[in-house]
Amino acid sequence: MTKRQQPQSLQKSQEAGYTIIESLVAMIVVSVLMIAIAPVMAFSVATRVQAKRIEMATQAAKTYIEALRSEALKQGGPIPGFPAPSTTDNKLEDTLAPTDINALYCIDKDSDQKCTADSNQDLVVQGYYYNSSATDPIKTGYNLIVRVYRANSFASGVGTLTTQKKLQAQQGTTTAGLGNLRAPLVEMRTEIGASDRQGAYNNFCDRLDRTQGCTE
After folding, report:
1. Within 13 Å and on the Cβ side, how many CA atoms surround 202?
2. 3-state DSSP call for residue 150?
3. How confident is the model over 114-137, as pLDDT tens digits?
4. What are the angstrom distances between the C-alpha of 88 and each of 91, 95, 107, 163, 201?
């Protein structure tokens, strides 16, 4: 007695059907996995972008400070006044955030020889200094605060810029890719020593508002 076999064409049709179903299942599984990990990947990329941006802003701030210390930035440069505007209050953190991109030092990252509000690469540096004496700040030294903003922070629609003190926090790296456009990427305060070393110690005491010297 012989066993009846199915037609060959029917066997091929069933095998092809199973292959298509398996492919669809695999595509569904991959899609679900991609949907699950997509937010994590996006957050990771945004964090790296913001961390890199803050790193470049830190380098820009340090370069600006070293340029002041070495006197590479002097009066009569592209920005009006002694390389940074002065304030009469030693509370440098209370100084206002900038409003004019053209009144700041430009860090040209896109190589177009200028900083414009439509650039997402350029950085701008704001500096304020305090010196309680009426003498030349270069000779006597001064306290300095430096803030670094993105050039596109000055674009229309962003709003009024702010400072870290008003935010009560430093802009972090674990933010969205854009971060907070109204906030400085970096804010530093430092001391620029006197170029004239004679009397530099007493000048430092004066800037600390010591009325009876530094013996106390």
Report:
1. 7
2. strand
3. 899 999 899 999 999 998 776 678
4. 9, 10, 27, 18, 21
Residues contacting 99, CB < 8 A, separation 6+: 160, 161
Give the integer Cα–Cα distance in Å for 131 and 140: 8
Q: Which amino acid does the sequence have at 180?
A: N
The average pLDDT across 154-183 equals 79
Domain ranges of the chain: 38-207
CB 128: neighbour CB atoms within 10 A?
22
163 is written with which tokens?
Answer: 């400072």
Mean pLDDT of the chain: 79
Which residues have CB under 8 Å from 182's CB, separation 6+? 153, 158, 159, 160, 161, 162
Report the predicted TM-score, pTM, of the whole model to 2 decimal places: 0.72
Q: Is 123 helix (H, G, I), strand (E, B) or coil?
A: strand
Q: What is the DSSP string of 10-21?
A: HHHHHHHHHHHH
Dump pLDDT digits (tens) for 10-57.
Answer: 555 555 555 778 788 888 888 888 888 887 777 787 788 888 889 999
Query: Which comes out higher in pLDDT, residue 99 or 178?
Result: 99
Q: Which letter does DSSP use for residue 97 in this model? A: P
The residues near 144 (Cβ < 8 Å, ≥ 6 apart) are: 65, 68, 84, 92, 127, 128, 129, 130, 189, 190, 191, 192
Helix, strand or coil, per DSSP, at residue 212: coil
Residue 105 CA: distances (Å) to CA of 47, 127, 187: 27, 9, 15
